[in-house]
TrEMBL record:
Keywords: Hydrolase, Signal. This is Peptidase S9 prolyl oligopeptidase catalytic domain-containing protein. Pfam families: Peptidase_S9. It comes from Florenciella parvula. GO terms for biological process: proteolysis.
């Protein structure tokens, strides 16, 4: 999780921000607690999301799968961080509702 293309370098230490000992990035990054994930998780990622690169969604899903956590990955190749296309919005909502029904019933 994390790293290029979004890694920032601290000019004073020449280290990626968060690499410094006790850095907030390391303390709060989800990957630091990935070994504790147990909750069934639906990971949804849009290919045009400029906030998170595709590898972030794939890495999250892969970590869940490797730990045996019930999980699914919904990939929307024409969407960004928000689902704007009406047909894709229907797929998104249907997937979320089915997931919730499956795991809360």
């Amino acid at each position: 999780f994390g790293g290029p293309p979004f890694a920032r370098v601290n000019a004073d230490t020449n280290m990626t921000v968060g690499e410094e000992e006790g850095g907030a990035y390391k303390k709060y990054t989800p990957s630091a607690k990935a070994h504790l994930w147990k909750t069934p998780t639906l990971v949804i990622h849009g290919a045009k999301d400029f906030r998170l690169v595709e590898s972030e969604g794939i890495a999250t899903f892969t970590a869940l799968q490797r730990q045996g956590v019930p999980s699914e990955f919904l990939y929307l190749p024409t969407e960004n961080h928000h689902c704007l296309n009406p047909q894709n919005s229907m797929v998104w909502h249907d997937s979320v509702l089915q997931w919730m029904k499956r795991w809360t019933s």
